[in-house]
Amino acid sequence: MTSRRIAVVSAGISVPSSTRLLADRLAAATASTLRERGVDADVDVIELRDHGHELVDNVLTGFPGPSLAAALRLVTDADGLIAVTPTFSASYNGLFKLFFDVLEPESLAGKPALIAATGGTGRHSLALEHAVRPLFAYLRALVAPTSVFSAPEDWGAGGRTAQSLDQRIARAAGELADLVAVRPAQKAADPFLEPTPFEQLLNGS
Questions:
Q1: What average pLDDT does this structure show over 151-168?
Q2: Which CATH number does 2-202 carry?
Q3: Does the keyword Chloroplast apply (predicted)?
């Protein structure tokens, strides 16, 4: 059985977090679908709330701290990415944006990705299409067609909206699994071996 690595980025703030819960369900569904395709999946979860201070320091100094560097490397080296954010002001939250801002250029180019979000009302679901998907298109990730949004009513036991969420999770996970399974396993070069030149950092580019 071949093996692939899936990185899961959760930008939830609270504990417990519906964002993390959705991320876990997407990861489990993707791993299960990959196994059905004869591919073993190793899943690494990155909680951005644990790296908040280092993210700000990275933006100010241009260099990641040890734990943030390890998290960035997990994403860079992964064969597939699941990225989940809570909806703040009709968009992704600041932690989510900071994390993807400090990734080295081209880190996500061609990488299969699944995007998802949580929010207090279903009216915020379009944030995935007008904010999150364009961000990953800019980063040149290969984003699965189905994005997954969950509102509080989606978590009811056995209800129609809960069944709809289950179906969307299964469809999105299947799309990501298909993209990951056909892509050769590869490990990206360590981005910290060739850091951004100091002159470029001074120019803010």
A1: 79
A2: 3.40.50.360
A3: no
